[in-house]
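Task 17 of the worksheet. Students: predict the tertiary structure of the chain below and write it out as structure tokens. Keep your answer in the requested format; marks are given for formatting as well as content.
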Amino acid sequence: MKELRETLGLTQQQMADYLGVTRAFVAQIETGLRTHSAKTALGITVLARWVEQAEEFIRSGVGKESEEHSRPEAGEAHRYKVRLEQRLQRLEYQRLKLERQTQKLLRISSQCSRWEAMEQALNDQDERIHTWFQLHQHEMQTRGKEVGLKLQRLRLEGEMLSRSIASLQEELDKLVSDAQGKSPAS
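Model answer:
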């Protein structure tokens, strides 16, 4: 009975009013302290069938023709209809909210994909720059070695020239000294 009452969105007092009993009687039935009468059982059965038909109507849009006792009185039916419409509105609001959240997540996902593509492009560019730098670094090292070898060769040639010049200078000095020693004035 409690499950049916909660499904209908009724308070214990509203359920008691519909069944023609007191709120305390409804509470005692729900807690198991008391059993219900045939009249109460009939009212609960009628409510249960009416809930099933309402749920069927909500799901499929088609309802079964009701018997004389298959609907609560008109005022309660209207209140139940209003509660169902409110519940439907809340569900529609939640659906729209979920749809907006889904769209937001799709936009974020798309943006993340673009960022990932940009990151990949930057990584590729970084790799190309690194490769270019290594290639040119190797080239510069090779040229540096070549220049170093040329400088070494030039130093050796310079040292050889210096020795040759020194040797030639010695020979020239010796020739000049010999020439001066053989001169007629002596």
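Marker's comment: The CA atoms of residues 65 and 128 lie 77 Å apart. The radius of gyration is 54 Å.
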